[in-house]
C-alpha cells in the first residue's frame, strides 16, 4: 500500500487529495517566492486527526507544511520539500469565549474577521491587525502584528496558552488561563513565531480587549519624511495613547489616488487612530495636531464617523493592492525591517533613495510607532534585472537595519526569504535555536527549508 492510500484510509477520500488544482493552490503564498507543489493536501478536522497525520508522517519521514489561508509574505506555507500540505481551515471553531476573563479559545483555522464578528456580541475585539484576514494559527506561527501594535502589542503579547502537536504526534499544553505566571520556561513564547517548524497548533487561548467607546482617525500631511517621523516621535513622547501610527510616502499616496480616484495630497502622510472616550479623544487629537504643526504639518484632518474613518484609512489599507492591480504582470516584493526609533527617519530616507536609484517602482510605508517599515517593490519575477535589483535593495535594507541594532524582519517572519541573515543577527543563539529544532523535530519533517539554512 502506498502512503497516500494509507492516508486516505485514515482520514477519508474527500479530505486527502492530490488534485493538481488544489495542490497548486497550496504551492504558494502572497510572496514573490517561487511555488512548489506538495504531493498531497490533507484537511484535518480535529486534534486527533492532526496527531494521526503527524505520527504517520514521522513514521514515513514525510515533510509536513501547515497551511492557513496562504496570506504569508516570506514563503512560509510553500512546501519546498513536497510532502503533505496540512490545511487547517476546517479546524475553524471558536471553542470558548470568556468575557469576564477577557479570553477566547479557538482552533487554528479561525480567521481574524470571524473571531471579531463573534467577539463583538460581548463588546470585545481581538486587537492584532496584520491587514490580511489571516487565520489565528498563521498569525501565531509568524508572530504577526500590524497597524495596532503600537497600542496593543504583537501576537506574542496576546497568547496565553497553546495546544501543540509535535512532529512525533505528542501533544503539549503550554501556558494557562492565568493572566501571568512565573512557573517554568515560557514555552508559549517559544512556539509563537516558530513558523510551523516546531509543531502544529490545534488550540490557541488569547487575550482580547474591550471595544473602545469611541474611535477617532486622523491624517497629517508633511513636506518630507523626516518631519513626519519627528512628529510621530513627539506624539509618542507626549504619552498620547495612539492606537495606530502609520507613515505612507508620497509615491504610495500617488498610486492610491490613481487606483481609487482619490485626491489626497501627494506628500508623506501620517495616519493616526485614537481609542477611548469622546472627551478624551478630542483632547488627544487636538494635542497631536499641535505637535504635528510644530514639525511642519501642512494639513491635519480627523474623522469620527465610521464610514469617513474607513475612507480616511483607504490609502494605508489598500496600498499593496493598489500597486498590484495597477501594475499588470508584476508581483510585489515587500521588505520588512525594524529599527530603533532613533534610526527610523534616516532608515526611511535610505529606503526611498535605494528605490529611486534603481529602475524599479515602489513605495515606503510602515508602522512607525514601533520602528517597523516596508519597502514595496514591483517586479517581474521572470525578469532577471528586476529580481536582481529587488534583491539588492532588500539586502542593503537588511544590512542597514542590522547595523543600526534592528532586525531583518519586524512582522513577516523568516520563512525562506530571511534565512541568510539569521546567523548574522543572532550569532551563537542561532545554534541554540537549531538545537531546539533538532530536539523537537529530529527527522526534520516540520516545514523544512524554513527558518534554518540547510546543512
From TrEMBL:
Cofactor: FAD
Keywords assigned: FAD, Flavoprotein, Oxidoreductase, Transit peptide
FAD-binding PCMH-type domain mapped to chain residues: 34-211
Family: Belongs to the FAD-binding oxidoreductase/transferase type 4 family.
GO MF annotation list: D-lactate dehydrogenase (cytochrome) activity; D-lactate dehydrogenase (NAD+) activity; FAD binding
EC top class named in words: oxidoreductase
GO biological process, one term: lactate catabolic process
Gene3D superfamilies linked to this entry: 3.30.465.10, 3.30.70.2740, Vanillyl-alcohol Oxidase, Chain A, domain 4 (1.10.45.10)
Superkingdom as given in the UniProt entry: Bacteria
Protein name, as recorded: D-lactate dehydrogenase (cytochrome)
EC number of this enzyme: 1.1.2.4
